Task: structure prediction
Amino acid sequence: MLQFDDLRLRVGGTPILRGVTLEVAAGEAVGLVGESGSGKSMTVKSVVRLLPPGSRTEGAVRFDGVDVSSLDAAGLRRMRSRDVAMVFQDPRAVVNPVRTIGDFLTEVLRDQGVGRTEATRRAARALSEVGIGDAVRRLHQRPYELSGGLLQRVVIAAALLTGPRLILADEPTTALDVTTQEEVVAILNEQRAARQVALMFITHDLELAAAVCDRIAVMYAGEIVEVLPAAALHAGARHPYTRALLNSRPGAVAPGERLRTVPGVPQSALTAPPGCVFADRCPHAEARCREVRPVFDGSAACHLLEAR
Amino acid sequence: MSAMSIPMPLRKPAAKRGAAPVAGLFCALIVLVAIFAPWIAPYDPDALDPLNAHAPLSARHLLGTDDLGRDLFSRLIHGARTSLAGPLIVILAAGTAGAILAITAAWFGGWFDALISRTLDVLFAFPGLVLAITVAALFGSGFVTPVAALSLAFVPVIARVMRAAALRERNLPYIEALRVQGFSGWHICVRHLVPNLAPLLMVQAAIGFGYAMIDLASISFLGLGLQPPAADWGLMIANGQPSILAGFPQQSIAAAVAVVITVVAFTAVAERLATRFGGDHAPVR
Amino acid sequence: MILEVRDLRKEFTGVVAVDGVSFAVREGGSLAVVGESGSGKTTCARIVTGLEKATSGTVELRGSVQMVFQDPYQSLDRRQTVRGCLDEVLAHHRKDRSRTAELLDLVGLDRALGDALPRHLSGGQRQRVAIARALAAEPRLLVLDEAVAALDVSIQAQILNLLVDARAATGVAYLFITHDLSVVRHVCEDVVVMSRGKVVEAGPVARVLGAPEHEYTRRLVASVPRAGWTPTRAVSRD
Amino acid sequence: MTRASLLAGGHQPDPAALAEIRARYHLDDPFPVQYWHWLSGLLSGDPGTSMVLKEPVTALIGARIGNTVLLVAYAGLLILLLGVTAGVVAAVGGRRVDQALTVITTVLMAAPAFVAAILLIWLFATTLSWFPVYGSGTGFTDRIHHLTLPALALSGGYLAYVSRITRTEVRAELAADHVAAARVRGLPRWTVLRRHVLRNAAPPIVAVSGVTVAGLFAATAVAEQAFGVAGLGSLLVQSAARQDMVVVQALSLLLVTVFVLVNMLVDVLNAVLDPRLARAGAV
Result:
């Protein structure tokens, strides 16, 4: 249903994405994991063309086989309002602070010609579906009267309200406490399964991605370095960067032991070397890693893995 | 912050980047002209030549002469002195007082902050022009009275912006880290807080300079500042007003253009500083 | 005990942020205070370091205390070089200026970065400078307020290793304020769990996080994503 | 010449008359006492009588307040309509439009009312004669006709300022996350602009416009003086030049009161527009 075909993105001459190739099937959940500057957020935003001014893309993002860059204004609007919904990191920044929760939930429906009473009824139902009781009172409240976790559930309810086939979730729980995160993620999982909606889930937490998604794509410096089934995260991770991420977590070793860290700082697409993006930090790097860029073979991009 | 804010293009349009150095050069030039006025001006600005009144623009009199035959170009050059010195004094006085009040208020907080803030609010309710006119009525017109009144009126304008900034700065973790280190409040203020606020104060002063210049010129124009025969831009505009109707607009127009160009130049420099160091514009009053 | 906090209480205009909290840190020990936002854990840290005054209760500190803050981007003076920052602290505490290089080595920063301004440094590097600055005064207790929370995973690992090394090298005790239980397991010996201003459970890390007794601790431990974890919807608590 | 001899109207006034005048106007008392006499008079509803014009202050103000209110309303309308519109257009209209408007507003902001006034006088006195350049006029239409140039001169700089603030605020909202979110939800451009951008940018714009309009009362001094309009501003300037303190005090108090009242009105309006402020105020 969704295809990234060698997507490259530059913003004002600065490279952000260096060739992203990925497919998301209908109803499938794909996790996009990486550190800051890896380009995971821009990858997802390119689906709905929410790109900064001065962006230039090469390659294609196809939704239902249609290149989104070829859509005209009306087509883009139709896709945004009916087919794809987005959930952001900070719900407080995303819900208009001077309007009511009810306004936020119903405005897209109203724009699509749904009557006021009907829109309100559907908004109230959507709230109860994401576990918010007392929906009628909530509809009249304003964002500052709700906690962050509650507000993120409102955002999810709004995303589900128009019956999309794909939800883009950009670190939807990073700003939340861990117990709230569990509830929000559980609701997202449950509603997604019930409605057969596809999901792209951005996070920096590998374990969280594994719990939410069917497949995980690991990004580094504007590239996807490895794609693997969520169930095989621990046993099946092969790319040195994925392994490094897994080993960097404090839980990876027994308490008191040293964490197996990789030296240096995360690269961005701008500073990426000519060869493998991870070569300068990789503990196993060889001469060819620094010179020749490895090809992504559908599961990983690494010279060392090709050899085996 | 959130990952989704779309960054604004950082590059300024080429035209604006090109304008700032030109404006800066002009500011430097006008200051030099003011300092060396007696050596630059071709004529004595007060020399009367009634037979040659309202002379047109010519090689002898670049901008012509006024109703009393005085050389307008020379008067314009001499006028730069009071026209620049006034705002300069206002900004130095109000900037110093405003910054000290703002930083002490923000630093000590509590009732001290409340006292200073409320006092500034009351003072802020007096528009600079009204304050200057009232003071002129009390103590008479001249150079000192309006400058003193405007200095007072500009204190709350600068202090408000600086207090907000100082409050923001004071709550940053690096200040708290210094407090945990055991540094004295005086050390933190003088060595860290003040130097970090200095760029904003510079911006405020540069913006305020333009406003002070306009206000002082307004007071001169109203006849409550410098008195004839002084060569001052605001006064020249007022003095030239009757001649406009007679068809000789040079005096008013020349002085008006001088005021506008100077204010534009200083404001352009201020805005360049502001985009470089951040900070808000002072509210107009 | 290097630090003993007894019956701490802090009110902010009508809101009780910290309510009857007691804990202690052993000489050279490492205590974590964990909790979610609004639990009062950061307020406790700020009271210990003197940034806030307690409404009631006592803080007994035997030795000097320093602090490392969460935000690596705002905890350094933007106009001061790394060397200037460390020199200032060393001079203030009447320590030998020549220790600047030694401190840079201790926190794993290239000596050439001494002349760099904060804006030239990455988040991890800045946090190293902040740790070096805190250690410059040779404190007996270091309060770390979410000191690794803002860092990327691979950088966080580097800093955690650095903290373990620094404690071994200097014998400084840690008071670790965090919401991240895996970090607690990795660097701390004892833990205090806080919720809504109160301590709900305290004890050795292995016991409290391994076999939690209080219902809140149980939920906290259960909601951390891990291998084989399935998120479940708890009783909705609007 | 002392103020008492000025009032007695001669070079060699009769000492007895002089003493009588000094007593009547409390001129021998120290300044705070003089001020107290004036203030207590004001509180009992009588701001006093002009020492120079020998007319009650209330009558002087009453005869001129209409012109000033009309002038402020006229200029305020221009500022709000043109300023806000230009600001919104600059923010959403693309780079060329933005640059052109920036140049215009920069010049306007640097052109104070008296500069604008002499340029307008020059233009309309010598070249065009659509509007009169002097006097207040009689009757509503004639007064509007007479007040057009003063209103234009008065509003120029403020108009530019309001337009700048509007542009900044609208651009800030355009870059806000909730606006991006609204666009991603597929709302039409105009709906996003109206319901999210303009609605949210309104409170600061209202605040700045309010302070600006409040400040207009003080600024009328220049415009009225330049165009010979008989209003409160020109009365203030003329009284100051004559050191007629009774009138100056009454007028500056009136202007400051209006300034404070308009500011309070703006605060109330803002609390209605932005529910967050209302809540912060209530806690």
Q: What stands out?
A: The CA atoms of residues 236 and 252 of chain B lie 6 Å apart. Residues 1-16, 279-285 of chain B have pLDDT under 50 and may be disordered. Chain B has one domain: 19-39+62-276. Residues 19-39+62-276 of chain B form a domain with the MetI-like fold fold (CATH 1.10.3720.10).
